[in-house]
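Let us practice reading a record.
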Amino acid sequence: MSTVQSLRGLVDLLPQQIPLWQQIEATAREHFGRAGIAEIRTPLLELTELFARGIGEATDVVGKEMYTFVDRGERSCTLRPEGTASVVRAAIQHGLLSQGPQRLWYGGPMFRYERPQAGRQRQFHQIGVELLGAADPLSDAEVIALAWDLLAALGVGGLALELNSLGSSEDRAAYRTQLVAWLEAHREQLDPDSQARIHTNPLRILDSKLAETQALLAGAPTLAAALAEPSRARFAAVQTALTALGIPFSLNPRLVRGLDYYSHTAFEITSSQLGAQATVCGGGRYDGLVEQLGGPSTAAIGWALGMERLVLLVEKAATAPLVRPAPDLYVVSRGEAAEAAALALAVGLRRLGLAVERDTSGSAFGKQFKRADRSGAAWAAVIGDDEVASGQVRLKALLAADQELLLPALDLAAMHQAISQARASINPLANIPDNIAASVSANIPAIAQRP
C-alpha cells in the first residue's frame, strides 16, 4: 500500500527545525511587548468576500492564488492569503476601534496557490503588525523601525529599506489616468501579462520583474510627479523621521506593493543574502481599508514578514545550529515493574519543575544509554529489577565518568536537589551534601514502591 504524502507546497516542520522558529517568534514577542503591541489571533478561514473587498478583485492574490471553496452552507470560503484584512475585520466586528487606537500583531499560516520555491510555499507563515488609528507620519517611521530593529536583532545582514509614496486616493486616480494613457500608447511593446493589467491593475505593471518591461517604463510618468502638496509634505516628514532614527533608505518610485488597499507610504525591507527573492518584509499605509470593510474611517499602517525567508536568513547568520534544550534527566528502565516506577519518577520530578525524558523503547540498557547520551542530559536515572527490589534509583552522571549516586526511590526532593545543583556544576556530584539521602521529600505514587 502506498504511503500518503503531504500536498505540494505544504511543508512539515520537523522537531529539529522548531527551535529556530521558536527563537524567532520569541524575539518578535519581546520586541512587540516593548512597543506595547498586543497579539490578536484570527481564524484561518474567512468569507471570500472579505478578501475580494479588502485586497481587490483585480489583484493576483484574489484572481489567481486563493484557496476558495463553497462549504456545506453554500457560502464561499477562503483560506486566508494574508493577515491584514482578517485583523481589520476582527477589530470592526468586536468594536475594538471604539476603544481607541489599536496596536496589534499576529502570526500564523497563510495560503496562496503559487509555484513552490525556496522561502515560498503554498502554506507559508507570516508575522505582522497593524497600527489602527495611527494617522501621523511618525507612526509610519515607528512601524518601519520596529521591523528594522527586529531583523537586526535576529542577525539578518545586508538589510536595505526601499520607500515610496502612493499618495492619496485622489492622487492615484489622477496618476492612473496618465499611466493608462501612456501604457495604451506603448501596448505593443508590453509583455502579455502587463497588457492584461492596463485597465484592471495598471499600477502593478510598475512592479514588473521583466527587465524589458522595466526598461520601457523608464519613460513612463511617475507617481511622485502626480502627488499633491499634502502628500509630498507627508512623505517628506516620514523620511525626516527615519533619518532621525538612523535608518538608511532609498526611494523606489516603482514600488507599489501587490494589494489594492495601500495608500501613502509603501515600503519593503530586503536582504542581499536572499538572492532573487530579496524581500523579507513589506508593508505600508492603508487608510481606506477599515471604512471599505464597513468600519469607521480609520487611518492605519502595518507590515508582514515571511517566516520561511526569515528562517533562511537567520540560519545563514547563525554561528551554530540551534538544538532542542536538553532535559535535566533521562530515565532508562527495563522490565514491567521498572517501567512503571520510571513513569512515576518522571511525572513526579516534572511536577517539581525538572525536564525529564523517559525512554519508552523497552530495549536493552546499552541502547537506552546511547539515547541518553544523545539527549544531552547531565544525569540518567537507572531503574531495573535490582533497583525496584531495593526501592532505590541509581543516578548516573552522563557528563562525567564513573560517577553514580544511589537514592531512595521515594526521595524526590533529594533527586531534585542533586539534579538541580548539577546543572550549574562542571562536576555533577559537586556541592551535593553527604546527607542528601536523608532529606525529607514528598512521596511518589505507590506504583513506584517496592512490591
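A brief commentary: The chain has a mean pLDDT of 87.
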